[in-house]
Structures are given as structure tokens and as C-alpha cells.
Amino acid sequence: MHHSPKIAAMPGPAYPSEATPSDGRTITREEVAHLARLARIDLTDDELDHLAPQLSVILESVASVSTVAADDIPPTSHALPLQNVFRPDEVRSSLTSEAALAAAPAVEQQRFSVPRILDDEP
Amino acid sequence: MSDLVELSAADLADALARREVSSVEATTASLERIAGVDGSVHAFLHVDAAGALAQAADADARRAAGDDNQALLGVPVAVKDVVATKGIPTTCGSRILEGWVPPYDATLVTRLRAAGMPILGKTNMDEFAMGSSTEHSAYGATCNPWDLGRVPGGSGGGSSAAVTAFESPVAIGTDTGGSIRQPSALTGTVGVKPTYGGVSRYGLVALASSLDQAGPVARSVLDAALLHDVVAGHDPMDSTSIDRADGWPSMAAAARRADISGLRVGVVKELGGEGYQAGVRTRFDEAVQLLVGAGAEVLEVSCPHFEYGLGAYYLILPSEASSNLAKFDAMRYGLRVVPDGVTAPSAEQVMSATRAAGFGAEVKRRIILGTFALSSGYYDAYYGQAQKVRTLISRDFEAAFSQVDVLVSPTAPTTAFRFGDKVDDPLAMYLNDIATIPANLAGVPGMSLPSGLAPEDGLPTGIQILAPALEDARLYTVGAALEARLVEQWGGPLLDSAPSLEGAR
């Protein structure tokens, strides 16, 4: 069975929709900075300087994949055929709240305590 | 070095069964060996001496009570640090999980415990299994016991080095693109990636979910088979776990068969030749001749799309990894870093600062690459195309296995390289896995076993055997037959030639 699941990607930047790797495009420093924001990783100036050319070289080296497969080749997401797996809807033992919270960076009232999730500005 | 630690797992199991030695004695010997040499090798990130000795005492008690039908009862084992172990720290070689103690066991760990195998500790690895040298571990690299100035391969260099250095008779590794087989080749040991779905992934910290597979690392084909039999089997907790109506055959029985007369062996034309070190090719060709001598029929087989495997892999893996690693968000477990100079930082700012501090260079590189490959407008051109190449590679395997029973190639293009040679050259590092990646993309099982020492540098070389999906047992039959002839030729196991580590450094 070949199918193409939509992997949950973070919201994408506005790239041209018809782009292909064979365009021979490289990744600019600004694009790396944008991708890093999407991936929630603060990168230093040095890391940005270093990563942009490295990623461009990697992209160039993998560009051949875009030309080898004809349109009628189905994609493979998993090596072996998969089917949905069900189990009986019955109560099972699970982690206690103490065990689940034991490694949390911060805990309050038997819950994970997290930083604010909204900006102050409207 | 105690004679006990030099025993194979099979021989140790026999000695335990004959009550000539206890598990506490064997486990103590391993722990003493670790204390003696791991300062030089650094195969372990954490040693659980108290836990291992308690499990050893329990194994001895089980045997005394007649509960002794587990083949490896009392034989100690080391586990790669990407596998969750209840009560034992699990870091994946990353700062972001420093000190994390899982509240549950991976299914394969549950099986090790049920089999009565004391867990010595957790082995070093490239961070989140991204790398081919262990140099990307946040806790320092593992050294190759053959030459402490060289890498042991990766990502599972810790498991391979632990077995090579006689710190543990066997170990568990994981293989996403070669992380069991390539380190085995570089350290002169045996490593097996089972068929995808053969060993449960429940409790493995996922790198690329459609490629990851755990398997055994050992000093002999039979030892690997015995450990494979312990950890393999259906697990309802892993939706991709294979549920075979007829169950899995015994890999140990397959290894003991070791008869390959009439077997058809295909040499993969595209995996060899240019780009492969001369000594690697020489030892591979000699091993193939030994297969002929053992009665196998050898022919060359072409897998024309394998050359695109590396490119497809380095799109699929970063894509899946960037998604899998999104869970490290500083909220429920692991590191939390609050950014400097920000009053009342948001969850997003805390997450970004934490991931900046907690992830190493290679992990950042691959997350950014995966984020790019999955972004709108590029998804079809990169990830979608890579999945099509995956289909082409699976078809190459199907065509090849219609002609032959197993395929063979060198496991890795070179012998162990020096620290620093490739650490900041991603493409050079990625090329280490060129021969191992196709098996992950197609889900078929693969084994690496030592083929000798390269004449030019005296370092181990590996030969890879690949079989069709579900035919893992075939690897053990072929591997054991070849191993027997190689050992006869060498006049003893290859590791007899490894340098003594006593008083190293």
C-alpha cells in the first residue's frame, strides 16, 4: 500500500508553488533565519552564517531525487503495508500524575506550569 | 581482564546453565571491566551498577527456583541511550534530556528484563542518533577500541565499542540509516537491523519513525541471534509492529544451521568500486569467494536506484525528525531555558531559547533542513519526490530478490576515520551510510559482520548481508556460515587481534 500522509508541518513560508530542487536554488541567510523561527530555535549570527552555505550544499546534493521518479510512481511512506490498528475500548493502567509530572520543569497544583502563551499586545 | 568478560553470550549462558558461574559474578566482571577501561573508551553515558547487580541476583534466584527456560538468563546487556529505561537516565546524547529519568520501560527493555538480562547501563550515541561517528554526542565522543584516536562509527558507536572492548557481551542498538551496521563494521563486531516492525519501537525516542528499528550488537553471529530472539515479536503498543500469524522463527536456530549450499548470493553492483577504500574492497571480495567455497552461487545484481537513496534519505529523515523533535518544547520534561533580558517571556520564546541551548549543531542543521523540505511549496518537490524514490528502491529490491536469496556489499565505504575528519563536513559524514540506507528505505533486514582488517591500516572492515522483508533468519544462516570460514582463516575471532586496553592512556 502506498499513500502519502500529510506530515504535520509548521506553517510554511510563502515560497513559489511550482519550485523544484532542480532550480539549483540555494538557501539564503534570511531564509535560514525564517526557518529557524518556524522551528522554534534561536540561532546566533555565527550559526546563521555557517548554516546557510552548508544547507545549500546539502540541498544541491539531494537535488537528483527530483528528476529520477516519473509522475506515475506512487510515493511510499512506510516500507511495509500499514493498516489501522484498533484495540478494545477498555480501561488500562497508565502513569500516575506524580510519575507524569516528575520530570516537568515546573509544576503547580498537580499540573504542568508553563510560561504565558499569549502576547500582551492585542 | 577477567576470562568471564571474554566469553561469548552463548558460552556465558552455557556456563550459567551449568552453574559454573553465577549472574552476579558475570555482571560484576562486566562492571569491573567497565570501571577499568571506560575512562579510555567512553562507551557508556550511565552505568547502573546497583540495578544490574540486583537484576543479576534475581536471575540467579530464578535459576535456583527452576525458572530457567530463558536462553540468556543472567547474561548482562548494554542498551543504547535512545531507549527508555524506567529509573535509569535516558538522554539520547542530548543536553535537552540531561538527567531525564523515564517513568516507563520501552517494550524491548521489558523483554530484556523478562528474559533475566541485567542492564549494565546506557551507551553513548550521536545526539538523537544523528551522525555516523558519535562525535555529535553532547557528552563527548566514544573512542574506537581498535585505535583510541579514531571514531567507532555512529550513531550507535557506544554499543559497538562496549561490545568490542569486552565491557558487555551484547548490546542493543538502533538503526535508522545504518546506526547499528556501520559502527559494527568500524569496530569488527556483528550488528543486525531487523525487518522494519520486527522489534517494537514503543519507548524508542523517535528519530525518523518510518525508518527506525532496534536490533542486536554482538561479538558473534550466534550471540546477535540469541539477543534478536529476546527482543523481537509483536507489540500492541506499536502500530507498525508486525503480527505474524506463524510467529518469528528462531534466529539462533538459523545461525546454528549455517548451511548455504545452493544459496544464490547477489553482489550489488552499485555498492562498491569507486569511493570504497581499497582494503574494504579486498576483504569484501575475499569474503565473497569464501561464500562460493561454501557452496553458494554468486552473481552480480544491479539496483540502479540505490544511487538516489542517500538523497532521498536526507530529505525523508530530516523531515520526520523535525516533526518528531517538535515535542521538545520545554513544557513537560527536559531542559527549560528562559531567554536573557526578556521580562515575562512567552512560551514560544522559552521554547526557542531552550532548543537553542539544548540541541547541538547537527540536530539544528537537520531540523532546519526538514522544516524547509516540508514547507508549503516545497513539500511535493522534496519530501514527495523522496517518497517516490523510496518506491523505486523497494522495486529494485523486489527485482533483485527475484533472482537471488540474499544481497551482499561492503557495509561502509571506509574503515574508522580520525576524530575531527568529517565532523563539520555534513556531506562527507553522510556518505558513511551510503550502503546501509537502502535497507532502511525499503524496510528489509540487514546484517554487518567483520570481513577482516584492511591491509593498509589494520582496521576492521565489514560485509553487509541483506535479505527480503521478514526473512531475517536468512541473515543469520548466511552470516554464521561466512563467520565460521573467516574465523577458521584468521585462526580465531577477529577481536583477538584488537589491542589490549589495559592501562590505555
Explain what this protein looks like in three dimensions.
The complex is a heterodimer of chains A (122) and B (505). Chain A is mainly alpha-helical. Chain A has four helices and two strands. In chain A, a hairpin with a 2-residue loop joins strand 1 and strand 2. The longest helix of chain A has 18 residues. The N terminus of chain A is likely disordered. Chain B is built from 17 helices and eleven strands. Chain B has an eleven-stranded mixed β-sheet with strand order 1-3-2-4-6-5-10-11-9-7-8, with helices on both faces.
Task: Set out the fold topology.
The complex is a heterodimer of chains A (122) and B (505).
Chain A: H1 29-38, H2 45-62, H3 65-68, H4 97-101, E1 107-108, E2 111-112
Helix pairs in contact in A: 1-2
Chain B: H1 3-6, H2 9-17, H3 23-41, E1 44-47, H4 49-64, E2 77-80, H5 107-114, E3 119-123, H6 157-164, E4 170-174, H7 181-187, E5 190-193, E6 214-218, H8 221-231, H9 251-257, E7 264-268, H10 278-293, E8 297-301, H11 309-324, H12 347-358, H13 361-374, H14 380-401, E9 406-410, H15 426-430, H16 437-442, E10 446-453, E11 460-466, H17 472-490
Parallel strand pairs in B: 2-3, 2-4, 7-8, 7-9
Antiparallel strand pairs in B: 1-3, 4-6, 5-6, 5-10, 9-11, 10-11
Provide a concise account of the structure shown.
The complex is a heterodimer of chains A (122) and B (505). Helix content of chain A is 30%, strand content 3%.
Number of helices of chain B: 17
Measure the end-to-end span of chain A. 48 Å
- By DSSP (H or I, 4+ residues per run), the number of helices of chain A equals 4
Find the structural class of chain B using helix and strand composition. Answer: alpha/beta
Distance between the termini of chain B: 16 Å
Regarding quaternary structure, what we see is: heterodimer
What is the residue-averaged pLDDT of chain A? 80
Strand content of chain B: 5-15%
* Spatial sequence of strands, sheet with the most strands of chain A: 1-2
* Order of SSEs of chain A: HHHHEE
Using a beta-carbon cutoff below 8 angstroms, give the protein chain pair with the largest interface and the number of residues from each chain: A-B, 72 and 82 residues
Please trace the helix and strand order of chain B, writing H or E for each element.
Answer: HHHEHEHEHEHEEHHEHEHHHHEHHEEH
